[in-house]
Amino acid sequence: MNLSRGSQGGGKERGITLTELLMVSAILGFLLTLGARLFISIDRYFRLNSARVEIQRDAERVTTLVHRYLSKADPWSVTVDQAFPFNTNPAFSRIQFITIDGSTVTFWQDQRTFYLAVNGSTQTLSQNVRGVAFVYPDIVKLGDLLFSVTTEKSIGGGQTKTTHTLQSRIRMVN
User: Fold this and answer.
1) How far is CA 50 from CA 57, 64, 114, 144, in A?
2) DSSP letters along 102-152, please?
3) Long-range contacts: 118-124, Cβ < 8 Å, 24+?
4) Predicted confidence (pLDDT) per residue in 123-134, tens digit
């Protein structure tokens, strides 16, 4: 394809034909469409992956702290109930107890946030909690408690979410 204008040899004009121009435009349009879809897919993959890492980290952190404090709890001081306000929080979403060293500890969920309070000092553990549950597996044996946490995070448009659930069996001090 010679882009120069003017006559050479036989007096014919040289240049870009309409067919060539349409072919180049079609190829560029196809590549741009493919590139945009690829970019969107890559962006979504990275958002999904970062959300997955964040909620796994949150679930592991929450489970570790609950396990650390509950393993030092006096089993007779443990109270499991529903966190206030009752209409927005699941049953068994709050636990209060006294540890063997005398600290008062409370874990609770308030909508999507999970908190820890030790002797009145409160800290946020996660803002990605979908649900928690503190349950006695055997009513006769008060020294064991099951803890389950489900974390969830939106990855775009509020439509797609990723979920991670951890469960732990905790043996309290007898």
Assistant:
1) 11, 21, 20, 34
2) S-EEEEEEETTEEEEEETTEEEEEES-EEEEEEE-S-TT-TTEEEEEEEEE
3) 118/69
4) 999 999 988 988
Inter-CA distances, 24 with 11, 31, 32, Å: 27, 11, 12
Q: Which two tokens stand for residue 66?
A: 């609950």
163: tokens are: 């979920």
**CA-based nearest residue to 97, from 72, 121, 128:** 72
pLDDT in tens, 94-130: 999 999 999 999 999 988 899 999 999 999 999 999 8
Query: Which string of b and e fits 109-126 if b means at least 16 CB within 10 Å?
Result: bbeeebbbeeeeeeeebb
Q: What is the pLDDT of residue 40?
A: 86
Instruction: Give the list of residues 6+ apart from residue 133 with CB closer than 8 angstroms, or none.
Output: 90, 91, 92, 93, 146, 147, 148
Q: Is the pTM of this model over 0.90?
A: no
Percent above pLDDT 90 for the chain: 29
Q: 108 with 122: CB under 8 angstroms?
A: no
